[in-house]
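re: ur question from earlier - yeah i can do the single chain one, its not a big deal. heres the input i used so u can compare w yours
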Amino acid sequence: GMHVTRLERVFRVADFLQNHPFWEAQIEQIYVNEKGELELIPRVGSHSVLIGEGKDLEKKFENLFLFYKEGLNKTGWNQYSIINLKYENQVVCTKK
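and the output i got, formated as tokens:
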């Protein structure tokens, strides 16, 4: 397919967030890490959320929502440094 620039990916995610009030309230910052992958910095907790290329956002955020609801309520917000949503249908957490 057509090469999507980093900026376009950032816009795509920003656009998604704007259309989803829950996530817009939740996510403070979007940035591109040194590997060119998108990371989100939430307002609450000290983890970052790695979403990779910014594809399949609906699905990724749905997985994240379930994880927030089930996982984080049990373990607390400060257990993890990275929540990785890059891989399809998988939430991979890196403990601090």
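The chain has three helices and five strands. not sure if urs matches, ping me
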